[in-house]
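seq:
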Amino acid sequence: MNRTAAELRAEAEAALTGVPALMLSAERLAAAATPGAHGKRRAGTGEDFWQYRPAAPGDTARSIDWRRSARSDAQFVRDREAEVAQSAVIWVSGAAGMDYSGAATRPRKADRANLLALALALALLGSGERVALAGQPPRTGRLQAERMGQALVARTRLDVDEDMPPAEALRPGQRVILFDDFLGDPAPALAYLQRAAGFGVQGAMLQVLDPDEQGFPYSGAVLFRSGSGLLRHDTRDAAGLREAYLARLAERREMLSRAALQAGWHFGTHDTAVPPAQALMWLWSVLEG
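struct:
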């Protein structure tokens, strides 16, 4: 059934009401990071000193470091490290399971992922990088952060249990950051990593989980359903499944961590009951490193 223009406008206005709050929270969170310019380890027009080198034909008198040259019989040029804008692509899963929260006092996984994604974008934009959500053109500046916030809030949930950005959109030189619970079929994620490695694309994967998904605190009769409702498991002894579940979760993390390492990526985990600053600092550190 087609929506009317009025219905579409009402949905858009309702979605946009969450943008200011998300932007404010993301700005506060991004302040926990200390972004700096990304050096490319070659001579350029940056601010950071890289090396002294002997003056060569073509170097101007202005480029000579006369203080360093005075200590020897040769003339030296003070090279600075190039600072060039990089391109970062951020993706947040829209799979149905990301709507889950085990308690009213905790955020949905999707809300926490959106917050971390936008805070990371603000930090990267602040260091001069070009940033975008997957499927959008990377840009710089404050306006780009607002575009990303609007896109994150306005997204509609998918009625599927697995989601992954199209690997065909990967481009050499990009850095990609993926936010997901990675609880569905791992094959799409593994295939994405393999293709990214072939392009020389590096990045990070952050598994965002609710504490209940980490500790499995269930007992008695429980009906388990996937986010889409397509998968169900009814049990009368949930506690008896705990050990097997935790073992499977550990195996899944080990597999993804190993695949990420082989692709030159980083794999991390985040619990929605833990302050988001910890995850942001981890993301910033691995991307800087």
